[in-house]
Amino acid sequence: MVEEPTPEPEGTSVTPALHASALYCDVCGKITPHRILHIQRKAGEAGKVSPRTVRGVARCRVCDSVHPFSTRPPAKSVDVLEVVSEGPLSQKRRVSLPFGRRLQVGSGVPGSDVPVIVRAIDRKDGRRVSEARAEEIVTIWTEREKPPIVRVSVIEGRRTSTTTIPAREDPMFEVGQTVMVHGVELTVMALRARGQSWRRPGDHFRASEIQRLYARRAFSPPAGSRDWRTVRDSPVSRTSSSSRSERSRSSPGVRRKRTVPRARTAD
Question: Which of 32, 133, 134, 190 lies at a CB distance of 3.0 to 4.6 Å from 199, suitable for a disulfide?
Answer without folding.
Answer: 190
